[in-house]
Structures are given as C-alpha cells and as structure tokens.
Amino acid sequence: MGILGSTGSYAYLEKAERKRVLRQALAHAGGVPVIVGVGALRTRDVLEMARDAEDAGAAGLLLALVEVAMFDYLGRIVDMVAEQPGADFFTRHANELGWMLA
C-alpha cells in the first residue's frame, strides 16, 4: 500500500498530520507492506519523515522530488542514506540509480 505519495494533498500536511496518516495506515494494513512518501522541500524534513516511517515499521519509502534542483537534492539524499547502517541494499543499487537519472 502506498501513502503520502506523489499526488494529492500530502505536500500540504504538517509533520504531525503525516505521522497520524502513517500510524492509521499501518494500523489498518493487515500485514500488507506500506510504502510511505517522504517528499518535502527541505532535506532535513525528508530525513525526519524517513526516520519516522522506519521507526513506525514502514516497508519502504517513496521520494517524490518536489524541488527544481532535483539532481542536487537527490544526490544529498543518496549520500546521507548510503552512510546509514544497514544501507547495503541501497548502496548496491546506487550506481544503477545514477545511470537511470543520467
């Protein structure tokens, strides 16, 4: 199940509202994996929402780019995520992602 994705009103929700949507979705998912959108204008907000989603038990993240300078934005996210413990799956696919963006 995907929530807070790349369409709809997610961009207008405050952090507390997004957390409430996340909790409700996970509570009603019935074991279905939940993918959570974490797109935001500020990198700090993206990282906070990603941590919230991970802590809540989300199965994955969706990062919809909402910034004009998307390559710089995505590059900063990639660098930060790749440095996190347990990011081995991500780092194995980072080069493939780079080629897809080129």
Automatic annotation (TrEMBL):
InterPro entries: Aldolase_TIM (IPR013785), DapA-like (IPR002220). GO terms for molecular function: lyase activity. Gene3D superfamilies: Aldolase class I (3.20.20.70). It holds the Pfam family DHDPS. It comes from the Eukaryota. This is Uncharacterized protein. It comes from Rhizopus delemar.
